[in-house]
Amino acid sequence: MEPDDISLYATTRALDPHDNFTSLCNTATMIHSDGIFLNSNPLHYSFPLLLLQIFLTSGVILLMKVLLKPFNQPNVVSQILGGIILGPSLLSRIPWFARSIFPLRGFIVIDMLTSFGFMFYFFLVGLQMDPWMLKKINKKSFALGFFSVALPMLLTFTFSSVLINFANLEPKTSYSLPAVSQAESIIAFPVIAHFLAELKIINSEFGRIALASSMISSIFSFCVITYNVLSHQTLGDNYRMITTISTGISVVVIIVFVIRPTILWMIRQNPLGEPLKESYTVALLLAILASGFCCQAIGLNAYFGPFVLGIVIPSGPPVGTAMAEKLNHLTSWVFMPLYFVKNGLLLDIFSVNFKKYLTVQFIALIGALGKFLGASLTSFYCHMPKKDAMALGLVMNAQGVLEVVVFKMIKNSRAIDYESFEVMCISMMVVMGVITPLIKFINDPSKRYQVYSRRTVMHSRPNSELRVLACVHDQENVPTIINLLEALNPSKRSPLSIYLLHLLELVGHSNSTVIPHKRTKRPSSQADPSKHIVNAFRFYEKNSHGFVTVFPFTAISYYKTMHDDVCSIALNKRTSLIIVPCYMSKGEMANKKAIRIMNRNVLDRAPCSVAVLVDRGVQITSRPILATWFSYRVAVLFFGGADDREALAIGARMAGHPSINLVVIRFLANGSVVGDNEEEKRFDSEVMNEFKLRMAGNYRVVYVEEVVTDGTGTISVIRSMENKYELILVGRQHDSRSPLILGLEDFAEQTELGTIGEVLASAEFLGNTTILVAQQQSAVHNGNDHNMGIFRDKYLEEADAEDMPIRRINV
Predict the structure, then answer these.
(1) Are 795 and 653 in contact (CB under 8 A)?
(2) Paired strand residues for 514
(3) Rounded to an integer, what distance in angstroms lies between the CA atom of residue 553 and that of residue 512?
């Protein structure tokens, strides 16, 4: 609890004559109301009043977030603004509202509850921090982090000294400016990480640089604050300081060497891939409370123990994920709104002297300018692109609840007066409100993965390796994906390089992680969730006669930013195809929806072609199905367009496999090629002619023309394919005006499967047939869109002057 806040609230607000410290004692037992029908006012009782206060605080902040969303405002702006709205600046200026909704007795309960909630908040802050990230910091990140704090401190102290010596300031203002300068120059790593996650750029290359730099900035900020505190200690305070440091070290040692081994034992005891046991979750919640109590009992801050406990908990599932899931929403939407509203109840923006506001706001803006210049100029020196350097300078100005806590600590230590604290909170809202839209404008994610050359299966060089990024969410994906990769027919002349990416949801840690799995004789940990998946692909590599090389990775990130990991690896490894799984089952609805959104983000931003794989229940086996089946039947549905041409290229590559029988079905309307774009029609015809020429003599390939009049005829053709094929390939996007899909508008073309893909995926009569929906790469700078000369494939030998078998069927 904060006695200064309670005292200030009791003396400055418009109190009811009966609402005083004496009345607090008389109402201590008034907890539960008897109800309005028994003439019992619920607002006179603590529990119903607290429920109403929680409803108002969370509701107002949520409303502000919704209203400010079109303006690209971050959460902290809506939180501070919600506190100001409920405080004496607006609604609490109404005497009835202040006396009834936020009386002094209610303020005391809020103060105590936020102190309780802050233990969980600091535990989550510790959970977000990864101390091993320091090992990855290089000289450039160190320079960025150092100058992002050093330059604003230099500028703010310089301008503060000028104002103190040459401006006619009030004594309180002159006394506060040095502390204001220091507070406005600090950078908090958890706040930067949360801000990057909110912008959905945390696991981009830019986000990783910002995280590494902000960690250095946080360490440097902590050192400066600690030095200033120690420099103002007296002899008596030195004894207290030594006692505090020694007890703090003891707490860290106990948590690291006693509690952490216990947590690791819990992880080993928990079944692999299963959620954390309920008994372990309860034990960890009790450990948070116990650590807070012990720290308070020995003279430390109650938040210190939970913070250290959060740091030592291993990242990701099962412990870190489970604890974050249990506490995140409760902390974010109950305790934190109460904290910001409690501060807002003490902020009266109309009571601040205008000259004082301008002075403190000027220093705050100088601090923001210093952070921007320190980060951006250093980035320029490190040869970072201009826009990224400017965006990094803006990101370093991010502030949040930790800065508010620091401001309050400085205020409680009497280093600044309360008016300066009010201006600093307002300045935080102003700065965050300005930088967030600017960052979103400068850092355009749609251009991040654009490349200058075609990276598709269609444009891949003959007799060269094909690079494929295979994404896996769980073990159920593995057999189908391995089977599909084997169908791509790796050979000595055209080996297959597989970049395996196991995607795990990030819960509980602020920084996303991409972990490469190196070859080692030492067995991996039993708790490694990627172990069985990686081993399955290693087994496939071992039995591929040297034609397949597997490079496994595990990516741990949020679903909303998971596409960044996929696209970044595809860009860096120069892959030609990304394979992502799609879920059509009814189970795990929340994750299925998040994964489908991730797939659409990959389709929108991928630097190469993408294939969405719909697994409809292929039997799980330890070996690729192609290795056990004599005939693997594949069909390519060709309606026309770039995506169908990519699907045809994938099918042509598969045609060289000795176990594959390929059927290409071309859909025609009234016997002719459809489409209003003459150039596209010409491309389709040329590609199909070249395909038939290259396939001539290969009697495992059949070309069929189906003549239909509308979407009903298309459905009839698809229905005739029942139980005939193990794999069907089709393009994702088609001409919406084409008569071939007329009447199929109910199947949303905005999904990751497109109209025909959705028809195939939802067709129950296709049984266990696997569906592969292809999209050709579209994000190309100055690329050549001509799709010529694409089937010079090493699998396909030159044929004699024989024609392919062609059938035309009218439907």
Answers:
(1) yes
(2) 555
(3) 13
